[in-house]
Amino acid sequence: MSDGRSERARDAVAVIPEFARPLVDQITAAGVLVAWNLAPAEWFLVDALAKRSGLDMLAAAAVQAAARNRKGVSHARYFLRAWQSLPPAPALGTVPAAAPASNVIPLDRAQPRGRVAESVDYLAEALAAMEAQQ
After folding, report:
1. Is residue 30 classed exposed, middle or buried when 0-12, 13-18 and 19+ CB atoms within 10 A define those classes?
2. Residue (of 55, 60, 53) closest to 85 by Cα position
3. What is the pTM of this model?
4. Which of 9, 12, 77, 97 makes the best surface tag, with the fewest CB within 10 Å?
5. How far is residue 55's CA from residue 27's CA, in Å, rounded to a whole number?
6. Quick one: the chain helix, strand, coil %, rounded to 5?
């Protein structure tokens, strides 16, 4: 005969299913430390989402979601809603779309010029002009 406290304590211990171990390891290795004591139905959902979107996509989304949350994330349940919004993993062999062309003008580093160097040049020109007038 067991008392209610020992049953609750046993239920509070995170038992991570084998399929989810790589996901938990990736998220933990990224420094996101959360409780993983999910209910069986939630683990079933995680399994379905992992099959649909892939473990890498779920892990990346969890790390991003944790980084955006200023208060911190304490439980893996927080990720479930974000994971449900993810698209399916791309089919094998899919080529990523090309990135759009950049509208940034590259900095000419051949002659790095700072404000001080430009000021010295302006001052030298002004002195030369004053001497030429005398």
Report:
1. middle
2. 53
3. 0.64
4. 97
5. 10
6. 55, 0, 40
- What letters, b where the CB count within 10 A reaches 16 and e where it falls short, cover 65-90? bbeeeeeebeebebbeeebeeeeebe
- Give me the tens of pLDDT residue by residue for the chain, a chain 134 residues long: 455 555 554 555 678 999 999 999 999 999 999 999 999 999 999 999 999 999 999 999 999 999 999 898 999 999 999 999 999 999 988 888 887 777 776 666 666 667 777 777 888 888 888 888 87
Residues 6+ apart with CB under 8 A from 80: 42, 45, 46
